[in-house]
Amino acid sequence: MPKDPTLHAPDSGIARLLEIMRRLRDPETGCPWDIEQDFASIAPYTIEEAYEVADAIERADFDDLRGELGDLLLQVVFHAQIADDRGLFAFDDVANAIADKMVARHPHVFGDESRDKSSEQQTRDWESIKAAERAEKAQTGVLDGVAAGLPALTRALKLQKRAARVGFDWPDTGDVLDKITEEAEELREAAQSLTHDKIEEEFGDLLFVMANLARHMKVDPESALRAANAKFTRRFARIEAHLAAAGKTPDESDLAEMDALWNRAKAEERGDA
Predict the structure, then answer these.
(1) pLDDT tens, residue by residue, 261-272
(2) What is the pLDDT of residues 52-64, one digit of tens each?
(3) Same domain for 44 and 99?
(4) 153 within a domain of the structure (yes/no)
(5) Which residues form the NTP pyrophosphohydrolase MazG-like domain (predicted)?
């Protein structure tokens, strides 16, 4: 097979990537694994790659970010090629659709509207435009269009934001904190006497209100939980390091010792140790 000049041109950008994916999906000469994939089988990888992009940003590792953005772009190209193979749409249709959407949603940049507006006003205008787009799709319910496949915590936040726009919201943070206390007590009661399904339901209610608290406090709950996970990982690694220095492993320790080492790790982070 003769060499394709685009395939081997290192600076040909998106055209090269599109050709690589087309070749991978070729039913006669492509890669068997790539040929077998469909939208559903690729979707989990798409979600995973988006999280890896977020992780690289959080670590401020911009060399890694370049690579992770490439991995995420590959997912878009992969889905577009599957659609092209089925005669549904092509990559250019995807690019044109988002370009049209961005122009339509920024009339103050690409149209006749004034740019003399605050970011808060722009957010309100953006939401009005999105509401009109949903109406065109016959998505007339306030909560219509919030993707069911989102991570549960992110979807909870989006649902609550939508409801808040029509006034279904607690007026201040204190009311949300009171609701958290109420839901925590209901979970305590459920844990003592109710079925596992009911316990799970009450636990979900508590998480849902916690997401609402994050919204009222202008905290991204996903980001906050990622930071908490990173902190736990970092401090537990310090526990393991201190135990290793004493010739021990966590299995050879006990809760009291590890708790003391946890507090030591906290003090070391604060510079108190």
Answers:
(1) 999 999 998 887
(2) 998 899 889 999 9
(3) yes
(4) yes
(5) 37-110, 177-235
